[in-house]
């Protein structure tokens, strides 16, 4: 459990042209507001306040960059789908998020956080539609798995895997992984960490200036 423990905040941006220089390796986290994205980031980093956790969903409205090593960054994308976020902000992110997901060369993989009780919402599938064609890996965290029984959790996991495989993985030849996750119970931390570590290692080997 090391990839995020040294994470340090670097910058928050509001517009695509404010993004840092497009180099190195970035792992982005996305998720519907109130799906537990910030809690997941904090659990993985073992830092209680790395990502902002609020009782009011929709507070993450900027693209937040955190350094997790030399030329490596975690990117916390704005939470989407909260009804009380002003329309102008929603419109702004509908334009900005797809540009980041589709055009950012250093983006090596996407972690999508979904509430296991409401997975694959319309907005979740929109994120998949934007990013899957790039054929870069996608990992889905089914958060709050402690809210369901073991049988229901495993059934939800199986259902999501089948839908993802049929609708995106087979169509775009994109590597998908899906897992159960609970920040409260510290469930799934090692599995998620191993997935992301593998992305970093794979991309580090393919970028000459990052090879030690």
H/I helix tally: 5
Q: Which class do the helix and strand fractions yield?
A: alpha/beta
Characterize the largest beta sheet: strand count, sense, and whether it forms a barrel: 7 strands, mixed
* Biggest sheet strand line-up: 1-3-4-2-5-6-7
Return Rg in Å: 16 Å
Percent of residues in beta strands? 15-25%
Which of globular, elongated, flat, extended, rod-shaped describes the shape?
A: globular
Helix content: 25-40%
Residue-averaged pLDDT: 88
Query: Could you spell the SSE succession in H and E letters?
Result: EEHEEHEHEHEH
Amino-to-carboxy terminus distance: 21 Å
Poorly predicted segments: 53-59
Total number of β-strand segments? 7
Notes on the protein architecture:
With 212 residues, this protein is an alpha/beta fold. The chain has 5 helices and 7 strands, in the order E-E-H-E-E-H-E-H-E-H-E-H. The chain has helices at 37-45, 87-103, 122-131, 150-172, 189-204, and strands spanning 8-13, 25-31, 63-69, 72-76, 107-115, 138-143, 176-180. The longest helix is centred in the last third of the chain and has 23 residues, at 150-172. It is globular.
